[in-house]
């Protein structure tokens, strides 16, 4: 093993909209009935945690496949499929998110969006992990687990020139049994809030996220 994709997550944060918790059952039914959606074998359980609703797989050890809805977040998480490349898996979740989550939820409820996040998690070998550590840590520093972030200005071509948008990148290392996992969370914050999905310039965001994970992780 060198670097193997474990899972991918796309999430949108917005101003609180409590109606989503009330409508979650109807939303999940619509998602599961959609021809562009997901197999019921992937999402077969519903869990309620306060105002949070989770449609997830029937998995006891580690739940990876899920759709999470609460008053200020919508999150889609998918396990990497064997035989699919990183590019194929990323395109798959991106297309499903836009065709189903955006179409059935975001465009219907029109929340004011303040952040989009794209999280890539990889199982990583020791030599590749050492190569990553050399980029960001001083020589000789023994780092067993870490979490740190780097922020920069807006993406090139942003249309809200008078805003204060910014990009945040979060790196984290964790251990799952004998495996070590590194995650890369690429986030764009919108200031002012965006009134709809198109104003977030999602195509530009997804292209930037894929380019960044190639540079930061896959090129090690």
Account of the protein in words:
The chain has a nine-stranded antiparallel sheet with strand order 2-3-4-5-1-6-9-8-7. The chain has one domain. It has helices at 19-33, 86-109, 126-136, 202-218; strands spanning 3-14, 45-49, 52-56, 66-70, 73-79, 113-124, 146-152, 166-176, 179-194. It is globular, with a radius of gyration of 18 Å. The longest helix is centred in the middle third of the chain and has 24 residues, at 86-109. It is built from four helices and nine strands, in the order E-H-E-E-E-E-H-E-H-E-E-E-H. The relative contact order is 0.17. With 220 residues, the protein is an alpha+beta fold. The two termini are 13 Å apart. A hairpin with a 2-residue loop joins strand 4 (66-70) and strand 5 (73-79).
Give the structure's gist in a few sentences.
By secondary structure, the protein is α+β, with helices and mostly antiparallel strands. It has 4 helices and 9 strands; from the N terminus they run βαββββαβαβββα.
What is the total number of structural domains? 1
Structural class: alpha+beta
Mean pLDDT: 90
Low-confidence stretches: none
Biggest β-sheet, characterized? 9 strands, antiparallel
Write the layout of secondary structure elements.
Elements: E1 3-14, H1 19-33, E2 45-49, E3 52-56, E4 66-70, E5 73-79, H2 86-109, E6 113-124, H3 126-136, E7 146-152, E8 166-176, E9 179-194, H4 202-218
Antiparallel strand pairs: 1-5, 1-6, 2-3, 3-4, 4-5, 6-9, 7-8, 8-9
């Amino acid at each position: 093993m060198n670097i193997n994709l474990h899972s991918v997550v796309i999430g949108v944060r917005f101003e609180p909209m409590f109606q989503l918790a009330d409508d979650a059952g109807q939303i999940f039914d619509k998602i599961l009935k959609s021809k562009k959606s997901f197999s019921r074998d992937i999402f077969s359980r519903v869990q309620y945690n306060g105002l949070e609703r989770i449609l997830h797989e029937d998995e006891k050890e580690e739940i990876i496949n899920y759709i999470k809805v609460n008053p200020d977040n919508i999150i889609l998480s998918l396990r990497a499929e064997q035989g699919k490349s990183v590019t194929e898996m990323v395109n798959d979740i991106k297309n499903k998110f836009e065709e189903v989550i955006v179409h059935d939820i975001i465009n219907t409820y029109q929340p004011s969006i303040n952040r989009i996040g794209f999280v890539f998690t990889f199982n990583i070998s020791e030599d590749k992990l050492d190569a990553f550590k050399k980029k960001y840590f001083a020589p000789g520093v023994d780092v067993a687990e870490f979490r740190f972030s780097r922020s920069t200005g807006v993406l090139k071509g942003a249309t809200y020139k008078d805003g204060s948008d910014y990009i945040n990148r979060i790196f984290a290392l964790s251990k799952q049994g004998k495996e070590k996992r590194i995650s890369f969370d690429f986030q764009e914050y919108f200031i002012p809030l965006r009134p709809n999905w198109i104003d977030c310039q999602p195509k530009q965001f997804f292209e930037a996220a894929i380019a960044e994970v190639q540079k930061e992780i896959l090129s090690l």
